[in-house]
Amino acid sequence: EKFCFYLLINYNHHHQETFINSSGKVVASFLEISGTFKDYVSLRRANEELSRENALLRAQIPDNIIQTIADERLTRQDSDDLFIYQYRAGKVINNSVNRAHNFITINKGSNHGIAPEMGVISARGLVGIVRHVSPNYSAAISLLNNQFRVSAKLRDSNYFGVLEWDGKSYQYAILTEIPGHAPVSTGDAIVTSGYSTIFPEGILIGTIEDYQLHQGEGFYEIRVKLSVDFKNLTYVEIVEKTSGEEQKQLEILMQND
């Protein structure tokens, strides 16, 4: 039967053409499936490379001094030559969004230069703060945590207040202490103020969804739509403000006066 099939294909033009077309479609289908599988397998490596690239590109701001250092880190020196930020890429291996005190576990620890009180951000914006560290892992409280508070401001007008999660939706947070005379509009961007030893200035937090003015207090209560989708968080960057200890110690002295 095999020999007859061979003769039929080789000595009959019509059957030969049909066989070649059919086999070509089958081979093409297998190649397409194989290519899709290879793309899926290589997706993790591609995402890790993109995460590292984000950590590098985040520091490439005009008028800043750029210096590459070891362990996939990059140092950015601010234009005032006082503060230095280092960014380290990491992957989220555990995450929660439906608790009062949500946390994130990252696959980088003290062996990679991570320490408590370092900021955590992503390509989309602010994520949280590192709380505990082991040699190879770190646990951070996310923005979706009742213990998390950060100084935030209106990007266009620089009026600043305090942003915290109200424990309701994983998509929203509340910004308070913005004075009633500040220009506020739906869709305005909310970013980090830079008034801390943790986060650089200008890290996106979200946009204004709605707001109301408390007449008796003279301050806005602003509902912020978060830029980070905490249910789809995979790769992050850990931020270290290496020379922030001097600022922290000075502010402690002022609080003790």
Notes on the protein architecture:
The protein contains 3 helices and 14 strands. By secondary structure, it is α+β, with helices and mostly antiparallel strands. The protein has a 6-stranded antiparallel beta barrel with strand order 3-4-7-6-5-14. It has a 6-stranded antiparallel beta barrel with strand order 8-9-10-13-12-11. Mean pLDDT is 79; it is low at 24-28, 60-71 and 78-83.
Characteristics of this structure?
3 helices, elongated, alpha+beta, 6-stranded antiparallel β-barrel, single chain, 257 residues, 6-stranded antiparallel barrel
Taking Cα atoms only, what radius of gyration do you get, to the nearest Å? 26 Å
How much is the average pLDDT?
Answer: 79
State the secondary-structure class: alpha+beta
Biggest sheet, spatial arrangement of strands: 3-4-7-6-5-14
Count of discrete alpha- or pi-helical segments spanning 4 or more residues = 3
Distance between the termini: 99 Å
Strand content: 35-45%
Please give the number of β-strands.
14
The main pleated sheet reads as: 6 strands, antiparallel, barrel
Task: Show unreliable segments.
Answer: 24-28, 60-71, 78-83
Order of helices and strands: HHEEEEEEEEEEEEEEH
- What portion of residues is helical? 25-40%
Gross morphology is elongated
Please specify the SSE layout and strand pairing.
Elements: H1 2-10, H2 13-57, E1 65-69, E2 73-77, E3 84-95, E4 101-106, E5 119-122, E6 125-133, E7 138-145, E8 149-154, E9 160-164, E10 172-179, E11 189-192, E12 204-214, E13 219-226, E14 235-241, H3 245-256
Antiparallel strand pairs: 1-2, 2-3, 3-4, 3-14, 4-7, 5-6, 5-14, 6-7, 8-9, 8-11, 9-10, 10-13, 11-12, 12-13
